């Protein structure tokens, strides 16, 4: 681990804590609103999907390709299930799911090699188009805005990443991580 990684680690941890808090509050708020408007157990499916995709977003740094692919698959499956269910289930992706998926996609575009990053970006576009097949709603607008933000921010951070570190000195070795000759 170089000194740049150590200084960025607390920032990443704080971002994950913030994402976790926002996700938890958003899931509870969405469940409450669905209980109030749809009634019954209409909130269970969307909450479960939000928990899964949010959990994947919190684990994204360990396996970026795997977590982004799993998040896309879970969201695509949720959208398909709600399309088949029609008016029996609220439309997916829920706001928290859209946020978590945007975090996964943006992070994958920023960190993965070009090929896998392009595949994740294409998958995000496909999921968004699938969302639009159920019609124009606030959910589709929110999912689209989150996807566009993820694509733009991921690509922007990717392009700036090389220039940001261009003038930094080589990391100093330590007994645990000696420099290579």
Task: Provide the descriptors you would attach to this structure in a database record.
disordered N terminus; 6 helices; 181 residues; mainly alpha; 76% helix
Q: Could you characterize what this model shows?
A:
With 181 residues, this protein is mainly α. The chain is 76% helix and 0% strand. It is built from six helices and no strands. Helix 1 runs antiparallel to helix 2 (42-58), helix 3 packs antiparallel against helix 4 and helix 5 (114-132) packs antiparallel against helix 6 (138-164).
Q: How would a textbook summarize the main sheet? A: none
Low-confidence segments: 1-7, 163-168
Listing every helix as H and every strand as E from the N terminus to the C terminus, the arrangement reads HHHHHH
- The end-to-end distance, rounded to whole angstroms, is 17 Å
The count of helical stretches stands at: 6
Q: What is the averaged pLDDT score? A: 87
- Total beta strand runs: 0
Question: How much of the polypeptide forms β-strand, as a percent range?
Answer: under 5%
User: Helical proportion?
Assistant: over 70%
Strand-pairing-aware structural class: mainly alpha
Gross geometry: globular
- CA radius of gyration: 19 Å
């Amino acid at each position: 681990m170089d000194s740049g990684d150590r200084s960025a680690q607390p920032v990443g941890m704080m971002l994950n804590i913030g994402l976790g808090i926002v996700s938890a509050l958003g899931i509870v708020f969405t469940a409450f609103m669905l209980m109030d408007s749809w009634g019954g157990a209409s909130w269970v499916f969307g909450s479960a999907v939000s928990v899964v995709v949010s959990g994947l977003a919190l684990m994204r740094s360990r396996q970026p390709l795997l977590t982004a692919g799993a998040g896309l698959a879970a969201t695509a499956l949720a959208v398909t299930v709600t399309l088949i269910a029609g008016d029996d289930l609220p439309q997916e992706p829920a706001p928290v799911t859209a946020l978590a998926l945007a975090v996964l996609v943006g992070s994958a575009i920023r960190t993965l090699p070009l090929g896998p990053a392009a595949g994740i970006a294409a998958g995000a576009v496909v999921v968004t188009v699938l969302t639009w097949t159920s019609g124009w709603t606030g959910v589709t607008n929110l999912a689209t805005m989150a996807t566009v933000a993820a694509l733009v921010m991921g690509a922007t951070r990717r392009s700036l990443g090389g220039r940001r570190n261009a003038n930094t000195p080589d990391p100093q070795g330590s007994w645990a991580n000696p420099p290579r000759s």
